[in-house]
Structure formats: C-alpha cells, structure tokens
Amino acid sequence: MDRLKGKYALITGGTSGIGLETAREFLAEGASVAITGRSRERLDEAARQLDGPLLTLVSDAGDVPGQSALAARLQAEWPRLDIVMSNAADTTHLPIEEWTEEAFDRLLAVNLKAPFFLVKALLPLFSRQSSVILVGSVSAFIGHENATVYGAAKAGLLSYARGLTHELKGRGVRVNGLSPGPTVTNAFKALGEERQAAVYEELRRTVPLHRLGSATEMAKAAVYLASDESAYTAGTVLRVDGGIGELAY
Ligand SMILES: NC(=O)c1ccc[n+]([C@@H]2O[C@H](COP(=O)([O-])OP(=O)(O)OC[C@H]3O[C@@H](n4cnc5c(N)ncnc54)[C@H](OP(=O)(O)O)[C@@H]3O)[C@@H](O)[C@H]2O)c1
Prior knowledge:
CATH class: Alpha Beta
Order of helices and strands: EHEHEHEHEHEEHEHE
Radius of gyration: 17 Å
Number of strands: 9
Shape: globular
Oligomer: single chain
Structural class: alpha/beta
Helix content: 40-55%
Number of helices: 7
Strand order of the largest sheet: 3-2-1-4-5-6-9
Bound molecules: NADP nicotinamide-adenine-dinucleotide phosphate
Largest sheet: 7 strands, parallel
CATH superfamily: NAD(P)-binding Rossmann-like Domain
Distance between the termini: 36 Å
CATH topology: Rossmann fold
C-alpha cells in the first residue's frame, strides 16, 4: 500500500481509461496525484471517483506554452515532483487519403512535441529520484489499420526514453516507456458500438493471450515504473500488450 508513499505524481489525461486507473493506483500506494484533462467537468467527474490527495488541472496536452503554465501551477502547489506519466494522446486513426496537414500537426503536437516541452518545463521540479513514464503503444512496433501517423508519433515518444534518460541521468531522472497493447477503455468508443464489437472480436483472435488488457493492468505496470522498485530500469520500454508486439498468434 505504500509503494509510492510521499511521492508527488503528475498524470496527463487522467479523466478516463489508463490515466484514471493509474491515478487510482498511485493514490492507493500513498502518492499525491495531479491529473489533467481538457474539461473542468470531466476532471470533476474523475475527482468524484478518486480518493486521496488530488489536484485536477485543466490543461491541453498539445499546447506547448500550456506545459510551462502546468509546471508553474505544480510548482506553486507542491515542494517537488517525483513521477510524471505522459499519458494523454490524440488517438486519431485514418487512412492516408483522409489526413490533413492540420490533423497531422495536431496529433504530433499532443503525442510528441508537447510531452517533450512538458518534461523541459518540469526540470526545476524534479526530485533526485524521479521517474518519467511515457505511454506509448504497440502501434509503435507493428503496422496495422490506419495507424501510420499515430504509430510514428508513439515510436518517437518512446525513443525519448533513451535520449532523455541519457540527458537527465545526472539529475536522478529515469525515463521509461510503457507500451500498452489493446486495452478496454473509452479510446475505442469513437468507432461506434458495432465496429468496436468487431474490433474487439478480431483482437481476441489476434492477441497471443486472446484478450484485451484492462486499464488496471496498465496502471499496475505504471506503479512499478513509478516506484523505486524499478530504480535500475532506465531508458527502456515495458510492453504490456498480451504479446501482440512480439509474438505470432
Ligand atoms: N486503449 C488502448 O487500447 C491503448 C493502446 C495503446 C496505447 N494506448 C495509449 O494509452 C493512453 C491512454 O489512452 P486510453 O485508452 O486510456 O484512452 P481514454 O480512455 O480515451 O483516455 C484518454 C485520456 O486522455 C485525455 N486527453 C486526450 N486528449 C487530451 C489533450 N489534448 N489534453 C489533455 N488530455 C487529453 C482524456 O481527457 P479529456 O477527454 O477529459 O480531455 C482522457 O483522460 C494514450 O496515450 C493511448 O495512446 C491506449
């Protein structure tokens, strides 16, 4: 219950799915937690589902100047920061014909550009035993339907784990990726009920472990990466994907 006792943790995109469940696990393990999201309403709804020392901050994960504002807000509230989970993402999947430059730039801003500037803005707050968790995706490793741009952005994000660990190791900051496979969350809702059911069915067939993951399973992996139990784990990616990133089914 005390694996994160006394630690301060920021989770971007904490109103639903993996971010919300990670907030729940971090709080249960004794951390103080801040979650972000784009709307006050959804943050308040998330807060009603969580128990413990929680900050809810409206912040768009794709807004570069907004990352400095978020860091300033945390600096005003907390003595330091020990854990950052960059989890918010633009999950747009489209065929090549439908991509506009605007949509491409937006996805890259949320999934790749702004997370870098978030880490930069947070540098003065990091404790000497900090863990940054970058939520990637199996789409960084395998090609699949309509995922070219999303997968490229996630591959770039996960590569930060190597570059940033190298750059920040002297400050005591470890950076690792967490790469979920198909996980039951609201992310699939945009597909509509019928298509979602068909996708779930196909995934049950093709994921080597023959099921989707749960947000709680991702959150438990995040606790490991966030805690000092993973103190010797740096610059790598933890795949929690039912084997789909590595194995034939
Ligand atoms: N579910 C999967 O199968 C799967 C697989 C691989 C990787 N992932 C990755 O896991 C992470 C979490 O996804 P999820 O499945 O948990 O999705 P989700 O249930 O849809 O949750 C997404 C969260 O991100 C927030 N968000 C989205 N855009 C944002 C923005 N611009 N600024 C701030 N917050 C934003 C949402 O908050 P608001 O809407 O309230 O702003 C929400 O809290 C993402 O990085 C995703 O790429 C998911």
